[in-house]
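Handout for the seminar on molecular recognition.
Each group receives one record of this type.
Step one: identify the two inputs.
Step two: read the structure output and locate the region that could contact adenosine-5'-diphosphate.
Step three: write two sentences on what you found, then compare them with the reference statements printed after the record.
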Amino acid sequence: MSDHRADDKGPGGPADTGAGKRASSTTTDPLELIEQCLASFPENDPRQQILYKLRHSVMLSAASQQQRDAEFKKISEVVAKLTAPANRIGTLLDLPGEGLARIVVGGAEYYANVDPRVAAADLKIGAQILVNEAYAVIKTLGYDLNGPVLKLTEALPDGRLRFEQEMGRQSMILQRSSDLVGVELKAGDELRIDPGHRIAIEKLEDRKAKTHVLDEVPTVTWEQIGGQQEAISAIRKAIEYPLLHAETFEQFKFTQPKGFLLYGPPGCGKTLIGQAAAASLSKLVSESMAAGGKTETLPAITGGAFLHIKGPEILNMWLGESERMVRDLFAKARARRREGALPFIFIDEAESILGTRRASRSFNISSTLVPMFCSEMDGIESLRDVVIILASNRPDLIDPAVLRPGRIDRKIKVSRPNRESAAEILKVYLTNELPLDQALIAERGGDKTKAFASLVDGVIDQIYKRTDENRLLSIRLRSGQNKVLYRGDLVSGAILSSIVQRAKETAIDRMIQSGQSVGLIAQDLSDAVLAEFREGEMLPPDDAAEEWLKLLDHHPEQVVGVSSFRRGRQTEERLINQII
Ligand code: ADP
């Protein structure tokens, strides 16, 4: 109908009137045609009503047509998407020329075109790319986030990277990803490579940094150590004599040791003694060098360095990692020496890495670490280069190869303090200048030193009394003998220093709360003793037999059973070392 109308109303047609300006157009739009009709009818013509209705219904049908069109378009798009073949994912290997890419897709390599719409900055070597059916690169996806991690064997001069694989597998040479170009890489660095083993993608954070090698300048003096006279004089003899009397040693063709082993229960001052030895020896050597001692190829010693590491921290689950750490440790010590410091390597819990096969719970550790350690040690010329101190509470487990003459052939015992030594240790911490209870001083005739001595005596009595309250353990020896161990039998320098620390905290609290200068009182110390030995805190759990053995002064193999006096009652005996 509208067509018909349109024909009728063509320009200059019979229905053309001056009133409808739009009539001059050749429109076929039904709404406009209706408008033209309406305009051509006289006012109040009843046909107008019909045309209004027609206009309304035409408008409605146009709107629903529009909606149908939109839905159809959407469905067509979905159908196109779902029926299109998937794009393959590959890896970009190289960009040999403008608009060209060398790619690997599913193991096969292609020389492909690159869609010019892909931004050049996104085209990174090693990145994942999307290719269409024609294998043209149409999109980049960034680096794959997964992939194996390998340890670098060598960075070749042309930038390529060589990786030696374990267990007899072939070694590999890989190229660097765009982000690795120019990055300084060294043997041992860990790199993540793309899953197709073609490109090294990224360098992983150096895990070695997490291992704790404490490198400090030793400042501990012999005076800061309470008791331990025997151990101290043995060490001084072991390290000072060869330096002070080098000629006498030479006359006797005596092989100088490279260090010593300190053994004994935990917390009794092995580390402290090592640090004091480092401070004192470096001072001695620097003095003897300044006084025109032997001329050396290395710079003169002007200070000390104390490289402290715990054996178990060297043990690493990564194959070859522990060896590298030991090598690094010695390298670090040599570097310190070149800087003019006398380096001491202190290895705590040394049995964990230098143990006999029986000692090392993980296989193969001792078989590779011990010979390596020995050869590093043999590379050290004298005590003026590097000094090694091993600390252990299981010296029986250390491989005898480590303890041969010329290596670590001095074993020095650092025992638990007896009454006298414990008093010496307390005196190191309870010094005369600390604020002290005036009443206590008055009781001792105004003599502060005597007052402190009485405090110390009080603590010693409290700890060493053979009372039921002080009972800690019962052990059964191989000989069949049963022995009860009291607090005094398991006390250590660490426990004594911690008792004083606790007492000081109480006194400080009291002074702050009351605002009065009260100072330490005897009660602070006796409370601190009780708190320190409080059930469960200093003793290992009942089932940790190995830990128990570390605490005892008896040879571990002689102990067959242990039980503790928790809550005053004796617990069931734990049997250990039954079958040896
Ligand atoms: P170890 O190396 O034998 O496990 P440490 O030397 O680390 O023991 O001692 C731990 C802490 O205990 C020291 O820092 C020190 O505060 C205290 N301590 C241990 N033995 C003594 C001692 N003989 N004299 C003074 N303080 C000691």
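Reference statements: The chain is about 35% helix and 20% strand. The two ends are 112 Å apart (CA to CA).
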